[in-house]
Amino acid sequence: MTKNQWLKDYFEAGDLPLSSGGTLRSARLHYHQIGHLNAPKDNLILLPTYYGGAAAGNHPWVGPTSPLNPDKYCIVIPSMLGAGESSSPANTPGSQSGSRFPAISLYDNVMLQKRLVEEVFGGASLALVMGWSMGGMQALQWGCLFPEQVRSVLATCCTARCYPHNQVFLEGVKAALACDQAFQDGHYQQPPERGLRAFGRVYAGWAYSQAFFRHERWRELGFQSIEGLLQFWEQDHLAQDANNLLTVLNTWQQGNIGNNPVFEGNYQAALATLTMPARVMPSATDLYFTAEDAAQDALQMPGARLEVLASEWGHIAGGAGRESQSQRKILAAAAELLSEQAS
Q: Which pTM does this prediction carry?
């Protein structure tokens, strides 16, 4: 691997104990790496993945002109369990395949990533853990579990737990998928295409804001009509496995950085542990990870600063390589967090 070339690899973790009390057998963590770890082992940046996204989805944040510069930092993108690249319903053989895949928590994901950092990267100090959506939830989970190892956190378009209205949104998209008779409670022989199409169409109405559609911002994505955008969302979800989608959706819906053996359900105690410099960056128009909920979380994080993205792109504003104005603000915040460590 050269410094500016992505390495794609797997960390073979063996049997992984889960917070539910079960075990994920022969767990595999897929990850992308660019840049090299320095001698002090203090230049590692972690970019956990988001819902529906592969590791490559975070690549746009990284580059020679970005504060996330592989000439300076070792940057690692770990793929979430259940999402299709790491151990997931669709790629796990035997008794844990498909609908029999065990429930996975934010804690489970981060504890596996912790093992990656310890066993592959020598227990390196994390200069930054940064993520969008569920990637941001994982970043916050990292910060509260390992405050001595994580030097800064940047969380965009997320909250530290899945709030009630967010849970109801997820029930809606879940129902759209599960009502396809071909789904068969997850025991399908062929992809439940009608359900996957419905899932994509329902989700699209939540991913962007009302103003995004009112002002025809979808034209900036190259679409000639709203129907064109909806068809794109259909095709995107037809390319995904239904059980994978629902496994990670459950991780999201049950997500709470305090629900683990360390904090035993004490959400406020988990937030209070986030004493390192942090940026919480919700979108003003996010319909499910709302700015109001994110602000309540940030108030309880001693090291956090709230910076709201003034965007019409809704939840999508925070994603790597998406809306350019929001991306500039997000990368500027990352640069500030990293530069504070050098001063």
A: 0.97
